[in-house]
Amino acid sequence: MSEDWLSRTELLLGKEELSKLRNANVLVVGLGGVGAYAAEQICRSGVGSMTIVDGDHVEESNINRQLPAIQSNLGKDKAAIMGERLLDINPNLNLKIINEYLHKESMNDILQIGNYDYVVDAIDTLAPKISLIYHSLQNNLNVVSAMGAGGKIDPSKIKIADISQSYNCKLARMLRKRLHKIGVYEGVQVVFSPEDISKDAVVLSESQNKRSNVGTISYMPPLFGCFCASVVVNGLLERKN
Q1: What is the DSSP letter of 46?
Q2: Which residues cross the membrane (predicted)?
Q3: Are strands 189-192 and 159-162 parallel, antiparallel or unpaired?
């Protein structure tokens, strides 16, 4: 495959910067509404090596917002679908696919085997999310973490900030509280929105991974994913977002 598909990127960044992306290695954990879009934009930017992780499969309720979610993919593994898609974008991508949920016990092992330049946390569940962030920092890895896109509808309010500067986001508040208990107060970039959530948009859930479900519009999780990708690309290029 020729490199012509990156000609517009090279025109913007130049050969030297494009080479930085080509030599970079990025881990994306979680391939739902946020993570799948983050992974695709990172791939399309020209990053040469990626590992994608998710143990979930496509459900009908995912169709309103998730990239792998179309009728013909119902029941299929998100990691496999996204792996095929990324390689269809760039057949030369050095891609590792991990089709499993990462638990806090296995998190450190995954982080140590990859020699990653950046980690994208797009996990929905709090405990593994905290574990991924903590072990990324312990391994001196750059990490960007997606906060809650559910219940939000105004894209102009999405922000990028250090975790210590996040506000009016329930997930960010819980994350800060738990991270403080293990001595982490800053050093994690987060994508969040301080937009208020209507109580009518939240219902209790009995699912294994979540205690509640939050209404979500089609474009907000993808935008969170794109913001995460921008943090990664600009970080790899050593530019401020």
Answers
A1: T
A2: none
A3: antiparallel
Parallel, antiparallel, or unpaired: how do β-strands 212-214 and 202-204 relate?
A: antiparallel
Q: In this structure, what DSSP letter does residue 103 have?
A: P
Instruction: Spell out the domains of the chain, with CATH numbers in brackets.
Output: 14-237 (3.40.50.720)
Q: Above pLDDT 70, what percent of the chain?
A: 95
Decide if pLDDT at 29 tops 80.
Answer: yes
Supply φ then ψ for residue 175, to 5 degrees: -65, -45
| Distance (Å, whole) CA 225 – CA 37 | 5
In 3D space, the residue among 135, 84, 92 whose CA is nearest the CA of residue 114 turns out to be 135
Rounded to an integer, what distance in angstroms lies between the CA atom of residue 129 and that of residue 211? 15
Other Cβ atoms within 10 Å of 140 Cβ, number: 6
pTM as predicted: 0.94
Q: What is the mean pLDDT of residues 182-197?
A: 96
Per DSSP, which regions of 127-174 are E strands? 142-146, 159-162
